[in-house]
Each structure stands twice: as structure tokens, then as C-alpha cells.
Specification:
Layout lengths: L1 H13 L10 E17 L6 E17 L5 E10 L4 E5 L2 E4 L5 E4 L5 H5 L34 E5 L10 E8 L12 E15 L2 E14 L9 E12 L2 E15 L6 E18 L2 E15 L10 E15 L2 E14 L2 E2 L5 E11 L1
Antiparallel strand pairs: 1-2, 1-18, 2-3, 3-4, 3-5, 5-6, 6-7, 7-8, 8-9, 9-10, 10-11, 11-12, 12-13, 13-14, 14-15, 15-16, 16-17, 16-18
């Protein structure tokens, strides 16, 4: 037996495979969110509440080649009560000049560079089935196939301090039926710029995405959207605003039938203030669109969605944050109030991260 092990080791070394068993560097992080969420819609006489528990853990793996290129990937395991699973990420190549290339599930560059607008934290929400196609946030038409790439420039691109840009592309297939829809070839460009004036740091970022629809009977592209957002940080105060406009083909929660969405617009504004261990946040979203399930035509009535949210986060200990959140939603489908998806929701809970 000893002779067989020696022969196997010699063969492995002779073929240059001695390093196969070596592992790349790995790290992990995660969190557990547990609390109580309640809601009171305009369509029910009494409010409801229930426990809300979610957990996730993410693993990151990376190694650097002799040429200095860092290769990284990872995966996330999520437990949200009814939707459990592991989601692997693609590959990221980080080059020696600081630029990066994402490969497989790379996403769209415009979403990467959209400036972050402050908003409330917490798990409060009102989310029943609905035919309402009004966007509820920026980057609402962020669609692309998993087979693609996104290139991120290094910081201070083209010699301009604070400038970063990115481009992405993905390539889908033609596997859809008469009522379904996925992204065909998609292209996106994103740009962000950071500047400091006195005590204030301003970030402006956004871009556009264009993705063809694999369903030949639709007149809209799968996604065609422009987004621009900005945020300003002065000491403990952060304020921001964003705007998106475009068209898309989407599936709403009330039906598997895809719908064409025209004239979609959404505005978001928000603010965040940090005082010691306490963070107070507020956010406002106002979106509208016209939709139709009859491909090749435009909708006639407006879907709308307006929400106001606020939250207070308190750092109880290192890695432990208590949250109180509240959201009020006013929804209308085809110009008629959608009482089942309008009302208020609250959340009280704790997030433990590691």
C-alpha cells in the first residue's frame, strides 16, 4: 500500500498537478433578521401581523494569479421562510490598474453606477397580487440574460478625479411563447462622478439600458430605460433624489401574462441623519405607467403607486441593530384605487450580522 501511495504521488507531481488540492482564499459573512411585521390595507376591516424571520450567509472566494489578476467568485444561501436556496455569483477579474470585469450574471452597468438615494430600512411592505405596473423604484427595467459581461473602469477614469464608467452586454435566446418574455441582447452604459465642495460630497450617477424582447409579437423592447440620481453628504446628513423613465415588457404578480408598459416614470427622494448610535431615514417614491396585455397596442389608463416610508435604526451592540419602520402606500390600477394594495405597514425587529 505504501508503494502504491508513493507511485501515485510521483505521478501527480510529474504531471504538474501537485497544486490541485490547494484552496483559494475564502471568507464569509451573513445576517439574521427577526421581528414582527403588521399591515392594514384599505381593502380589509382589520389589520394583520405576523413574525418575520430571514437569514442569509455569503461566501467569497478569491485568488491572485502570478500576473497580478485577482479572480473572485462566491455564493449566497438565503432562508426567507418560504424561498430557500443558494445563489452562485459569476466570476470577477480585477486587473492591476484597478479596473474589473464581471463575467456571467454580470448585470447592467447603468444600475451599478446609479447614485444611492436614502430610504427607510425594515421589512414593512404591502405586496398583494396586482395588475399595477407602475414602477416602485429606480432601475425598474433592469433586465439582462445571465450570459454576458460588465466592465468597470478604474477610479479617476481618463485622468478625471472622481469619474468612473462602465459598459455591459448580455446575450439571450428565443425560447419564449406567445405570452412570455425574456431579455434578448442587452446593452448598458453607466457613469458616476464624485465631487467635494467644502464640507459636502456630491455623487451623480446613472445611465441607460436597452434590451430586445425575445417575444416577436411585442412592440416594446424588454427594457429601454434612462436613470439619473444624485446624493449629497454633509456631515451626518445625507440627502438624495433620482428619476427614471422608459418602457418595458414585464410580468405582474396577478398573472403569468406579460404586459407592455409605456410611459413609465418614477421619482424618488430621501434623507438620512446619523446621531451617535441612531440613524433616522425617510424616503418617498412616486411612479406611474400605462400597461396593456394586448401586444402591439398602448394602454389608455394610468397605473400609479405612491409611498412614504420612515425608519429608526439603533446600534444596540457591535453587529446588532434594532429597527422600527413604517410605510404608507397609495396604489391605483387603470386609474381606479387598488384598495388591496393601499394602506400602511409597520415593522419592529433586530438584525444580527457577522
Amino acid at each position: 500500500m505504501k508503494k502504491e501511495l508513493l507511485i501515485a504521488s510521483a505521478l501527480t507531481a510529474s504531471f504538474g498537478l501537485a497544486g490541485v488540492a490547494e484552496a483559494a482564499s475564502a471568507s464569509f459573512s451573513g445576517n439574521v433578521r427577526t421581528g414582527v411585521k403588521g399591515s392594514d390595507t384599505d381593502g380589509t376591516a382589520d389589520g394583520t401581523y405576523a413574525a418575520d424571520q430571514k437569514a442569509s450567509i455569503s461566501f467569497s472566494v478569491s485568488e491572485t494569479t502570478d500576473a497580478g489578476v485577482k479572480i473572485s467568485t462566491g455564493f449566497t444561501m438565503v432562508d426567507e421562510g418560504t424561498d430557500d436556496g443558494a445563489d452562485p455569483s459569476g466570476l470577477t477579474l480585477t486587473f492591476t490598474d484597478g479596473s474589473k470585469m464581471d463575467i456571467i450574471e454580470a448585470g447592467n452597468a447603468y444600475a451599478t453606477h446609479t447614485a444611492a438615494v436614502p430610504g427607510a430600512s425594515g421589512e414593512q411592505s404591502i405586496s398583494g397580487t396586482t395588475d399595477n405596473s407602475a414602477p416602485g423604484g429606480l432601475n425598474f427595467a433592469n433586465a439582462s440574460d445571465s450570459v454576458g459581461f460588465e466592465y468597470h473602469s478604474a477610479a479617476d477614469a481618463m485622468g478625471i478625479e472622481g469619474l468612473k464608467w462602465g459598459v455591459s452586454a448580455a446575450f439571450g435566446d428565443d425560447g419564449d411563447g406567445a405570452s412570455s418574455s425574456t431579455a434578448e441582447s442587452s446593452y448598458s452604459v453607466g457613469v458616476s462622478y464624485v465631487s467635494t465642495a467644502g464640507d459636502t460630497t456630491v455623487t451623480v450617477g446613472g445611465g441607460f439600458v436597452a434590451a430586445a424582447d425575445s417575444n416577436a409579437t411585442t412592440s416594446n423592447d424588454k427594457s429601454d430605460e434612462f436613470t439619473l440620481a444624485l446624493s449629497a453628504v454633509t456631515g451626518s446628513l445625507t440627502v438624495g433624489a433620482g428619476f427614471s423613465s422608459g418602457t418595458e415588457v414585464q410580468s405582474n404578480s396577478a398573472s403569468t401574462q406579460s404586459v407592455e408598459v409605456d410611459g413609465a416614470e418614477v421619482m424618488t427622494v430621501g434623507a438620512k441623519y446619523v446621531s451617535g448610535d441612531m440613524t433616522m431615514s425617510i424616503g418617498y417614491v412616486d411612479g406611474e405607467a400605462k400597461d396593456t396585455a394586448t401586444f402591439g397596442t398602448q394602454g389608455t389608463n394610468i397605473d400609479s403607486k405612491e409611498s412614504m416610508s420612515a425608519s429608526i435604526d439603533y446600534a444596540v451592540a457591535s453587529g446588532v441593530t434594532a429597527t422600527v419602520g413604517y410605510t404608507s402606500v397609495d396604489s391605483a390600477d387603470e386609474g381606479v384605487s387598488d384598495s388591496a394594495n393601499s394602506g400602511s405597514s409597520w415593522y419592529i425587529g433586530t438584525n444580527v450580522s457577522f
